[in-house]
Design brief:
By secondary structure, the chain is mainly α. Helix content is 66%, strand content 0%. Helix 3 (49-65) packs antiparallel against helix 4, helix 3 (49-65) packs parallel to helix 5 (86-105) and helix 4 (69-83) packs antiparallel against helix 5. The protein is elongated, with a radius of gyration of 38 Å.
Length: 213
């Protein structure tokens, strides 16, 4: 076309041979010749939020299963901060529970109990879910009065009583301390059983031993 012929003339003609005044149409052609069009790549498609959420939750639960409770807890905190839903809170509580179990497994009962208190205070809905861990941490930390005190409450739930009794069977090693625990009434069946077991243990370990031929 004539327009492109003029553009070629402007580009190929030395500056000394060009007229002092270039026609406006040629000037526009020269600008067109040397300008480069800018192409914008299409925007990336939006990610599926629900799919991402499920993938993130699966990742945290896999970390929990692999025993990486600290990393799992950090991930769950990030998810709950971003989502703030009941589901993300449940995931966070599960991650806290895994971290508490890890601390108990390392013999860090005091640290585990402190973390339990934090979770119970921050997420009241998680209190029942943490009953067994709470009882276990209290038992291992050696605070018997705090452990057995709730048993005196007539309104105690069956689940909480079972969690405390299970923790006593699993974690309490000092029968004498349990037998003398002032938090339990003297006629309490648990205290009576501890007294009987303590007497039987002392009779076996301190009494005379007959020779066996």
């Amino acid at each position: 076309s004539k327009m492109f012929q003029r553009c070629d003339w402007v580009s190929n003609t030395p500056a000394s041979a060009r007229p002092s005044t270039i026609p406006q149409s040629l000037s526009r052609c020269q600008k067109f010749k040397h300008s480069k069009p800018h192409f914008h790549s299409p925007a990336a498609p939006a990610l599926n939020g629900q799919a991402d959420s499920k993938a993130a939750e699966a990742s945290v639960r896999q970390l929990i299963a692999n025993g990486k409770s600290k990393v799992a807890l950090d991930g769950a905190k990030g998810i709950h901060k971003a989502q703030g839903t009941a589901a993300s809170e449940a995931l966070l509580v599960d991650a806290y529970a895994a971290r508490i179990r890890s601390l108990l497994g390392q013999g860090l009962a005091v640290e585990a109990k402190a973390l339990i208190d934090l979770v119970r205070d921050r997420y009241p809905s998680a209190r029942e879910r943490l009953e067994e861990l709470t009882a276990s941490a209290v038992a291992r930390a050696g605070t018997l009065d705090e452990l057995v005190g709730p048993l005196n409450d007539p309104a105690i739930s069956h689940e909480r009583r079972a969690a405390i009794e299970h923790a006593i069977q699993r974690d309490v090693r000092d029968l004498a301390a349990l037998a003398e625990c002032a938090a339990l009434a003297p006629e309490d069946s648990l205290r009576k059983a501890a007294c009987a077991l303590e007497r039987a243990f002392l009779a076996v370990t301190t009494g005379p031993v007959a020779d066996v031929c």
